[in-house]
């Protein structure tokens, strides 16, 4: 099966003109019928959701469609970081199965109730693209459930980063959706996840020897804060400067391997310390026996990490290469992080040399160590092999 992907992008303030141009460009570059269309619309366009869908369906006639509001968009080797961005991403994959669905979450006693999922997830697909409204949907709850119900199934996507008063921020097939999440299951088409958390490991690996929830009380049988201070003291001057700007902790998720490399650590902020007890608080749950390592993040480490992640992915693709990619990059990246425009878009174009489109998200979804997580300051990508 040969996969074809095409992307159209516009920054025209006129909604009809913007999406007509983006949809026409996507249609012109697509080799075959459109099996899936993914749409990203800046806040100025969201009040015209039905018109957007009418335009796209008239030009592409997609079998399936999902989309969301975007604070900024990525496509065609460029980034429109704010305003009236419009991206239409189109996939042709003869023989593949695409199933769209609307999802909900609701707080209930003792947890979160999920709505909209099929009872038998094994019948629905081998991968998922997820776009969620951060104000009305718990992506963490869904990912926790999917990690248990469909272990190893990659979920890629992001949280909608734009909204408009009295306007829905999600799209599903021919409808606009005002809450929850929209998603599509894919089967019969290969998807390679690519996750760049934009951080560099520093210092030694350490084992968690006492922890409760997100509180680490011992590292390598010493009070956690004492052990972290020792690790920081042993860093180079440049590494200590980066650590002073914001210290991160990488936690190994899959420990069934002899060595840990880039991508093996789930990177989370250190959110607090207690000098009295020597405990360290991390923005995620940690368990005894896990291996951890300090991480730092700056524009250089983020750029290098993205290139390394993409190059690893390109090697996995082999000679056939990529048909294209969906991109979910943090709205804290772009010119907020890098001193040049179009940073992530340029890296994708350089390494994958294939059509890529996506948006600047309010949270990015992708797997680390075989489990799916919601990230920040991360670029996650769903890469589709050409064959």
Please provide a written account of the structure.
With 387 residues, the protein is α+β, with helices and mostly antiparallel strands. The chain folds into two domains: 4-196 and 302-385, no CATH class; 200-296, Beta Barrel (Elongation Factor Tu (Ef-tu), domain 3), CATH 2.40.30. Helix content is 22%, strand content 39%. The chain has helices spanning 15-29, 49-60, 139-149, 224-233, 237-245, 299-317, 343-352, and strands at residues 4-10, 36-41, 65-69, 73-75, 78-80, 86-92, 97-108, 111-115, 127-132, 155-159, 170-172, 175-177, 181-187, 192-196, 200-201, 206-212, 215-219, 222-223, 248-252, 265-274, 279-282, 291-296, 322-330, 356-361, 364-368, 371-375, 379-385. The protein has a seven-stranded mixed sheet, with helices on one face. Strands 1-6-2-3-11-12 form a six-stranded mixed sheet. A hairpin with a 4-residue loop joins β20 (265-274) and β21 (279-282). α1 packs parallel to α2 and α6 (299-317) packs parallel to α7. The longest helix has 19 residues, at 299-317. It is globular, with a radius of gyration of 21 Å. The N and C termini lie close together (6 Å).
Short description:
The chain is an alpha+beta fold and 387 residues long. 22% of the residues lie in helices and 39% in strands. The chain has a seven-stranded mixed β-sheet, with helices on one face. A six-stranded mixed β-sheet has the order 1-6-2-3-11-12.
């Amino acid at each position: 099966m040969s996969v074809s992907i095409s992307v159209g992008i516009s920054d025209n303030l006129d909604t009809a003109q913007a999406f007509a141009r983006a949809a026409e460009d996507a249609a012109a570059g697509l080799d075959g019928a459109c099996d899936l269309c993914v749409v990203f619309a800046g806040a100025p366009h969201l009040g015209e959701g039905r018109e957007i869908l009418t335009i796209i369906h008239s030009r592409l006639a997609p079998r399936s469609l999902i989309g969301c509001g975007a604070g900024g968009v990525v496509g065609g080797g460029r980034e429109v970081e704010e305003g009236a961005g419009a991206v239409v991403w189109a996939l042709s994959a003869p023989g593949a199965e695409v199933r769209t669905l609307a999802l909900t979450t609701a707080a209930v006693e003792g947890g979160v109730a999920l709505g909209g999922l099929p009872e038998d997830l094994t019948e629905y697909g081998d991968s998922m693209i997820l776009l969620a409204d951060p104000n009305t949907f718990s992506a963490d709850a869904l990912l926790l459930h999917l990690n248990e119900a469909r272990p190893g199934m990659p979920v890629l996507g992001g949280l909608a980063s734009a909204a408009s008063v009295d306007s829905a921020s999600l799209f599903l097939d021919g409808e606009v959706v005002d809450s929850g999440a929209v998603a599509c299951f894919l089967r019969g088409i290969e998807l390679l996840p690519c996750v760049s958390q934009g951080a560099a490991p520093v210092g030694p690996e350490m084992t968690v020897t006492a922890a409760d929830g997100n509180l680490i009380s011992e590292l390598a049988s010493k009070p956690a804060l004492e052990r972290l201070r020792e690790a920081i003291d042993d860093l180079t001057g440049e590494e200590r400067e980066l650590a002073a700007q914001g210290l991160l902790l990488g936690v190994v998720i899959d420990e069934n391997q002899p060595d840990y490399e880039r991508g093996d650590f789930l990177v989370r902020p250190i959110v607090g310390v207690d000098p009295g007890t020597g405990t360290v608080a991390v923005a995620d749950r940690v368990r005894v026996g896990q291996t951890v390592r300090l991480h730092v993040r700056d524009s250089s480490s983020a750029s290098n990490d993205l290139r390394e992640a993409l190059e690893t992915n390109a090697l996995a693709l082999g000679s056939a290469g990529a048909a294209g990619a969906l991109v979910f990059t943090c709205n804290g990246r772009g010119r907020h992080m890098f001193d040049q425009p179009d940073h992530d878009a340029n890296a994708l174009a350089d390494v994958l040399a294939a059509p890529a489109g996506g948006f600047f998200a309010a949270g990015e979804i992708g797997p680390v160590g075989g489990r799916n997580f919601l990230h920040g300051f991360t670029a996650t990508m769903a890469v589709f092999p050409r064959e």
